[in-house]
Amino acid sequence: MSIKKISLVVAFVSLVVSSIFINQGFKTQAAETIYTYQSAVYSNSWNVTPGQGYNSGGVSINGSSVAGTEASWTFGTIQSTPETFEVFTSWSINPNRTSSAPYTLYHANGVFTRQINQELLANGNPGAADQWSDWRSLGIFVLNNQSRLVLTAVDNTSGQDFVAADSVRLLPLRGTPVSSSSASSTDTNSSSSSSIPATGGGVATPADFNQVATGSANRNNLNTTIRTGASE
């Protein structure tokens, strides 16, 4: 096949892929931001466990048995003008993790809550102790520089309900969420759960968006900015 024909084929494939994203109302852009556990603000006592989590960079685990202590990531790198992002989080799994870690996202259109089983991987399957979960999508939201994600510790008097704060990933998208109402939505992942997040108020999640742009080649090839702390 000649170089000219190969170029035409590549251009055609690119056009088809782009049209899929556009038809769904979204298109991935050229950069993403990852906020590590170091860029979170913590209330009360949290302990760093090195070698776990995203890129084995470490996670922070609540050191108190009392419920209500928080790890909070504020997305101050976003412009003041609201933008659309798919939001992901991750953790390190362990049998002593809580099965209902509450994540609360304060976005431009309201509040979204999701409970995540940190004993399991992001896809709902079991794994090795202290293994990185991989990325779990919370959904697609409109965010601004006041938006934040809060992970709250649960009662851990049993010593079997620790909460691990790892990293948060913002994948910028072009497009506007189909809903702009303020609402809350809660679900819990399980071994049979889908990676496609549930639709809720202020959240746009086309049924096949994650199937078109799965968390493998397309997203991993994006330019990535790592935010590790307030000093950056």
Number of helices: 3
H/E topology pattern? HEEEEEEEEEEEEEHHE
Low-confidence stretches: 6-27, 178-186, 190-221
> What is the CATH C-level name?
Mainly Beta
- CATH architecture descriptor: Sandwich
Class per helix and strand makeup: alpha+beta
Could you describe the largest sheet, including whether it forms a barrel? 6 strands, mixed
Q: Quote the CATH topology.
A: Jelly Rolls
What is the percent of helical residues? Answer: 10-25%
Principal-axis shape: globular
Proportion of residues in β-strands: 25-35%
- In round numbers, the mean pLDDT is 76
The strand count comes to 14
- What's the end-to-end separation, in Å? 49 Å
User: What integer value in Å does the Rg equal?
Assistant: 18 Å
Keywords:
alpha+beta; Jelly Rolls
Give a nutshell description of this structure.
With 232 residues, this protein is an alpha+beta fold.
Mind explaining what this structure looks like?
The structure is a single chain. The chain is of the alpha+beta class and 232 residues long. Helix content is 12%, strand content 30%. The chain contains three helices and 14 strands. The chain has helices at residues 3-23, 209-212, 217-220; strands at residues 27-28, 31-35, 41-42, 46-49, 59-62, 70-74, 83-89, 101-107, 110-116, 136-143, 148-152, 164-165, 168-174, 223-227. The strands form three sheets. Strands 1, 2, 7, 10, 13 and 14 form a six-stranded mixed beta sheet that branches. A five-stranded antiparallel beta sheet has the order 3-6-11-8-9, with no helix packed on it. It has a three-stranded antiparallel beta sheet with strand order 4-5-12, with no helix packed on it. A hairpin with a 2-residue loop joins strand 8 (101-107) and strand 9 (110-116). It is globular. It starts with a helix and ends in a 5-residue tail after the last strand.
